[in-house]
Amino acid sequence: MTATVHTLRPGREPSIKALMNLTAPGLNAVNHVILDRMQSPVALIPELAGHLIAGGGKRLRPMLTLGCASVLGYEGNRHFKLAAAVEFIHTATLLHDDVVDASGLRRGKVTANALYGNPASVLVGDFLFSRAFELMVEDGSLRVLKILSRASAVIAEGEVAQLTAQRDVSTTEDRYLEIITAKTAALFAAACQIAAVVAERDEKVEEALASYGRYLGIAFQLVDDAIDYVSDAETMGKNAGDDFRDGKITLPVILAYARGNEDEREFWRRAMSGRANGVAELARAGELLRSTNAVADTMARARHYGQRAIDVLAGFPKSPARDALTETVEFAIARAY
Amino acid sequence: MTATVHTLRPGREPSIKALMNLTAPGLNAVNHVILDRMQSPVALIPELAGHLIAGGGKRLRPMLTLGCASVLGYEGNRHFKLAAAVEFIHTATLLHDDVVDASGLRRGKVTANALYGNPASVLVGDFLFSRAFELMVEDGSLRVLKILSRASAVIAEGEVAQLTAQRDVSTTEDRYLEIITAKTAALFAAACQIAAVVAERDEKVEEALASYGRYLGIAFQLVDDAIDYVSDAETMGKNAGDDFRDGKITLPVILAYARGNEDEREFWRRAMSGRANGVAELARAGELLRSTNAVADTMARARHYGQRAIDVLAGFPKSPARDALTETVEFAIARAY
Fold first, then answer.
1. Is residue B7 part of a domain?
2. Contacts of residue B149 in chain A, CB cutoff 8 Å?
3. CA distance to B26, B254, B281, per residue, from B294 (Å)
4. Mean pLDDT of B203-221
5. Averaged in consecutive runs of 10 residues, what is the pLDDT profile of chain A (337 residues)?
6. What is the pLDDT at residue A6?
7. What secondary structure does DSSP assign to A165-190, as a single string?
8. Which family does it belong to (chains A, B) (predicted)?
9. Which candidate, A335, B142, B150, B164, has a CA 20 to 30 Å from the CA of A39?
10. A96 and B126 in contact by Cβ < 8 A?
11. How far A311 CA lies from chain B's nearest CA (Å)?
12. Residue B12 falls inside a structural domain
C-alpha cells in the first residue's frame, strides 16, 4: 500500500541540479540582494548572518520561487528581492531554532549560537526578519506581504506547538502533520505562491503553487525526520540521533510507539522523557524502528505527499521548469538513501 | 549649564494620567485588538504573551500613537490596529531582551523566560512580531509598513550594537547615544510618526512627530539607566544594579569612568568585566557615581532631550492633546525621583 513516486527518468538518480541549472542566473541576482542587504554598520550582524547564509545553504526556497515563476513564464525581476526575503525569513528561523534546540551542528558546521552565543543569534535573527519585511515593502505588493506575514506567524505557531509536544509520546500523527505543515511546509508554500503574485496570475494559480510547495515541504520534513535515525553526521550535516536526544517527537517515533508492545512503549517513554537516551538506547531505538517498519513507513508517507506535489504540477503545461520542479520532489525523497 | 524642562504646571508632580485620560477610549479599542490578536490555537502562545501583555505594561507606545493622532485632530479608527502592532513589536523585543539579558524580573514580575524557558520566549516573540506585520498589512498602508519594518531592523541593530559594547568601558557617549536611539527611541519615533500617516499629513508633520518620539525615547532611556543605580526593585520593577552586574555600559558609568582617576577607572574595568561586581562593589559604584556627578548629569542630559521633545511640540497648535504629550515628557523625567 505504499505510494510510489512516478519518476521522470526511471533508473537515474534524481538530482537538485535540474532546478539549480534552471534558476542559476536568477539565483545570482538573489544572492546579490542577500549579500547586499545583510550588511549593517554593526559588524557582528553580517559576520554572524554570513556564517549561516554563506555557509552551505542550498537556497532551496529562493530556487522554488524562481522555478515557480519560470513555470508561469514570468520574465520580470521583482521576484529576486522577494526570494531574498524568503531566504532571510528562513535564515532567521534557523538562527532561532538553533537557540531553541541548543544545537551545536547544522549543515556540517558549528552553529552560530555555539560560536557567537544565544543572545547574538536571537538578535541577528530579528534583524534578518525585519530586513525581509523591508525588502517586501520595497517591492510594494500587499498581497505578498500578506502571504509572508501570515506564513511567518504560522511558522512561529508551529514551532511553539512542537515545543509543547516535545517529549510527549502520545502525540498523534495528525498533530505531527499539523506541526510540520506549519513549521516547515508553510514557508515552502509561500515561496511558491508569491511567484504567482508577481506573475499576476489568479488565486487558483496561487493556490496550486502553494499546494505544490506545501506537499513538497511536508515530504521534505518527513524525509528529514527519517534521516535523523538512519544517517550519520557526515551525510546529514548535523548530529545523528539529535531528535532522539532532544526528545523531539517525529513520525518514526510515533509509528514505533503506536505499533510497539507495552515493554517497547515504556522504552520510548523513558527515552523521550530524557531519562534513558544514551548510545545503547539509540541503538535499541534503531532496532525498534526497523522491526516496526517505522522509518520505511515514514518514507512511504513522504512519497505520498511527494506524489501529491507532482500531481499538482500536472495542471501546468509541460516545460523544462515543470520538469525541474518535479525532479526536485523526487530528489527531496531520494535524499534518504 | 544643565537644561531645565519648562513644566506646564510648576509645583505639581507631572503625571502620565493626562495622556491616559486623553487616550482612554482609544486605548480600550487598542486593548481589544491586542487581546483578540494574541490568540492562537497553540495555547502556550496567549498564555505566555498574556503574562507580559496583561502584566502591568503602561501601553506607553500605543498611547503615543493615539496622543499624536489626537494632536492632529484625527478622528478615524485606523490607528487602533497600528497601535496594537506597535505594542506587539515592543512586547516581542521585551521577550527577546529578557532572553538576551537572562533577566529574572521585569515590571516587578518574574519574567516570561524565567517562567516558561528561553525557547518559548524566543518563539512567542517571533509570533507577536509576525502578528504585528499581519495587522499592518490589514491596514494596508505601505508607508506605515515601511516605517515600522525600518524601525524593527534599527531596533535589532541597536540591540546587537549594545551586545558588542557590553563590558567595554571605553564606549563613548556618542556610541551610547547611537545605541539607545536605535534600541529604544526608534520605536517611540515610529509610534508617533505613523499617527501622521493615518491622519494623511505631509512628511514635515511626520518628521516632527518622529522627532518628538525620538527625543522622548532618548530621555526615557537615559532616565531608566540612571534609575538602575539609584532605585530599588520595588520602585523600579526590576532588580537594582542589574546593569552593573550585566556589565551593561550606560551613561552613568561612561561619565564616572571618564571623570575618574586611574584607580577608579581600574575599579570600573574590573567591575564591568564581571571580575568584581558583588554587593560591596555596587556600593562603591554608587559612591563614585555620586562623587563624579554621573547620575545627576545623566539626568541633565535627559532633561536636554526632554526639552527638545517639548520644543518640537510647540510647532503644533495648543490643545489638551499637546499638553498631555508635553506632560508625558515631564513625567518620563520625573520618574527618577
1. no
2. 130, 133-134, 136-137
3. 40, 8, 17
4. 98
5. 58 90 96 96 95 83 98 97 98 94 80 92 98 98 98 98 94 97 98 98 98 98 93 58 91 97 97 93 94 96 98 97 97 82
6. 62
7. HTT-TT--HHHHHHHHIIIIIHHHHH
8. Belongs to the FPP/GGPP synthase family.
9. B142
10. yes
11. 31
12. no
Chain A residue numbers touching B174 (CB-CB < 8 A): none
Query: SS3 for B106?
Result: strand
User: Which of B40, B122, B149 is the closest to A130 by Cβ?
Assistant: B149
A168 inside 8 A of chain B by CB: no
E strand or H helix that includes residue B105: strand B105-106
CB B291 within 8 A of CB B279: no
> What pLDDT is stored for residue B3 in this prediction?
46
B142 and A146: CB-CB below 8 Å?
A: no
CB–CB contact B142 A137 (8 Å): yes
For residue B227, give how far its alpha carbon lies from the nearest alpha carbon of chain A (Å): 24
Please report, as a single letter, which amino acid is at residue B213: G
Q: Which helix (H) or strand (E) holds A47?
A: helix A44-53
Residue pair A120/A79 in contact (Cβ under 8 Å)? The answer is no
Convert the pLDDT of each residue in B152-204 to its tens digit: 999 999 999 999 999 999 999 999 999 999 999 999 999 999 999 999 999 99
Chain A residue closest in CA terms to B134: A149
3-state secondary structure of B218: helix
**Tell me: the pLDDT tens digits for A65-98?**
999 999 999 999 999 999 999 999 999 999 999 9
B114 by Cβ neighbours in 10 Å (0-12 / 13-18 / 19+) ranks as: middle
- Candidates B38, B44, B124, B133, partner chain A, best to mutate (most A CBs within 10 A): B133
Q: Which residue has the higher pLDDT, A180 or B113?
A: A180
Q: How far is CA A180 from the centre of its chain?
A: 9
> What separation in angstroms does the CA of A83 have from each of A29, A46, A144, A321?
10, 19, 11, 17
- Write out the residue range of the structural domain in which residue B258 sits: 17-334
Residue type, A82: L
Listed residue (B217, B132, B210) closest to B182, CA to CA: B217
Looking at residue B230, its pLDDT comes to 84
Query: What is the nearest CA distance from B84 to chain A, expressed in angstroms?
Result: 16
Percent of chain B with pLDDT over 90: 84
Identity of the residue in A92, A118, A127 whose CB atom sits nearest the CB atom of B160 = A127
Mark yes or no for CB contact B149/A157 under 8 Å.
no
Q: Which of B119, B133, B140 sits opposite A149 (nearest CB)?
A: B133
Residue A109 phi, psi dihedral angles, 5° rounding: -115, 155
Number of domains making up chain A: 1
ipTM, interface predicted TM-score of the complex: 0.93
What is the model's pLDDT at position B193? Answer: 98
Residues from chain B that touch A93, judged by Cβ atoms under 8 A, are 126
B50 inside 8 A of chain A by CB? no
Residue A148 inside a domain? The answer is yes
Which positions in chain A touch B143 (Cβ < 8 Å)? none
Q: Does B25 have pLDDT greater than 70?
A: yes
How high is the mean pLDDT of chain B? Answer: 93
The dihedrals phi and psi of B277, each to the nearest 5 degrees, come to -140, 40
Residue B135: pLDDT band with limits 50, 70, 90:
very high
- Does any CB of chain A come closer than 8 Å to the CB of residue B41? yes
CB B14 within 8 Å of CB B330: yes
CATH of the domain at A122: 1.10.600.10
- Of the residues A44, A122, A134, A146, the best mutation for testing chain B's interface (the one with the most B CB atoms within 10 Å of its CB) is A122
Write the CB contacts of B233 (distance below 8 Å, at least 6 apart in sequence).
B105, B108, B239, B240
Query: Between chains, do B153 and A140 touch, taking CB under 8 Å as contact?
Result: no
